[in-house]
Amino acid sequence: MANHKSNTHIQYRGRFAPSPSGPLHFGSLVAALGSWVDARANKGEWLVRIEDIDPPREVKGAIDDILISLEMFGLNWDQEILYQSSRLDDYQAILEQLINDGLVYRCICTRKEIKASGGIYQNTCRALNISEDLEHSLRLKVINPDLEFTDCFQGRCKTKSGVAHEDFILKRKDGLFAYMLAVVLDDVHQQISHVIRGSDLIDTTIQQINLFKALNKNHPIYGHLPVAVDRHGLKLSKQNHAQAVMTGAENVSEILHQCLEFLKQSPPNELKSESKEVILSWATQHWRPDNFKDTFQIVHNK
Ligand code: GLU
């Protein structure tokens, strides 16, 4: 069983935090399953948080689709679901606190300009004192950042050069709170001890750790699972229309089995014909995250 020994004094609380931009697909089911099993194998709680702070990207019906799929696969959650759309006042209050601490500045750079200069923001507006009359985003002044972190599955992780030093957006030009701010504030708010998620988010981890630091809070333990990519190396995602896993009850067991195989857990063949409860209980008892150490991507054609 995975037991993150150095942290046995911490009550384990994990979470799955989907954005409602489409139904669950194989890749997001793997992330949900991996975080659920890790929580249960460590006798922890597992919460669901709906990250619905980006209305333009929200797909109608996706929240229900995601929750129905989780239930269908037996991934039961603890506590009430938290909807980020109910947390906007708190985000604003903490943003103002960061502004008062001199840790936020206005930026007028466009995505196109940043892309043209290599894709990582060069903190151009930090020294410019941009007028509030111009349409602007708000960025965190990242001071003295951590450059590495220890992943509970993958070991020591360095980030792509420049990422840790990048002053990232907390509030967008369109007035919406950025994912980075909301995710960190909610991991604090919900006292999340373990963030277990797909490796597609690994580059954001060091930035999130640095926001925790700016807020004077301890960050959770992070663990990154392999992500499913297509044969061109593209992540299976709602954006590239990966097939949803909404399915008739008859192949739930088969799909769970496939997810465990994907996570290199070597589930026995006979499990395929067992109930989801039996499969999940087997997965919890035999959870071996070491099996996917150093594996960040796996080609999956479904
Ligand atoms: N809401 C993010 C997504 O659906 C995941 C956030 C996280 O796990 O930190 O990609």
The CATH architecture category equals: 3-Layer(aba) Sandwich
- The mean pLDDT is 92
* Biggest beta sheet attributes: 3 strands, parallel
Which value, in Å, is the CA radius of gyration? Answer: 20 Å
DSSP helical segment count: 8
- Extract low-pLDDT stretches: 1-8
CATH superfamily: HUPs
Fraction of residues in helix? 25-40%
Q: Order of helices and strands, N to C?
A: EHEHEHEHEEEEHEHEEHHE
**How many domains in all?**
1
Indicate the overall shape: elongated
Structural class: alpha/beta
Number of E strands: 12
Task: Describe this protein's structure.
By secondary structure, the protein is of the alpha/beta class. The protein has one domain: 3-Layer(aba) Sandwich (Rossmann fold). The chain is built from 8 helices and 12 strands. The chain has helices spanning 26-41, 62-72, 88-100, 111-116, 179-189, 202-214, 252-262, 276-285; strands at residues 13-16, 45-50, 82-83, 104-107, 137-140, 148-151, 155-158, 169-171, 194-198, 221-225, 227-229, 297-299. The strands form 5 sheets. A 3-stranded parallel beta sheet has the order 1-2-3. Strands 4-5-8 form a 3-stranded antiparallel beta sheet. The chain has a two-stranded antiparallel sheet with strand order 6-7. α2 (62-72) links the parallel β2 (45-50) and β3. α1 crosses α8 and α7 packs parallel to α8 (276-285). The radius of gyration is 20 Å and the shape is elongated. The relative contact order is 0.18. Glutamic acid (GLU) binds next to loops.
Outline:
The chain is α/β, with parallel strands linked by helices and 302 residues long. 30% of the residues lie in helices and 16% in strands. The protein has helices at 26-41, 62-72, 88-100, 111-116, 179-189, 202-214, 252-262, 276-285, and strands spanning 13-16, 45-50, 82-83, 104-107, 137-140, 148-151, 155-158, 169-171, 194-198, 221-225, 227-229, 297-299.
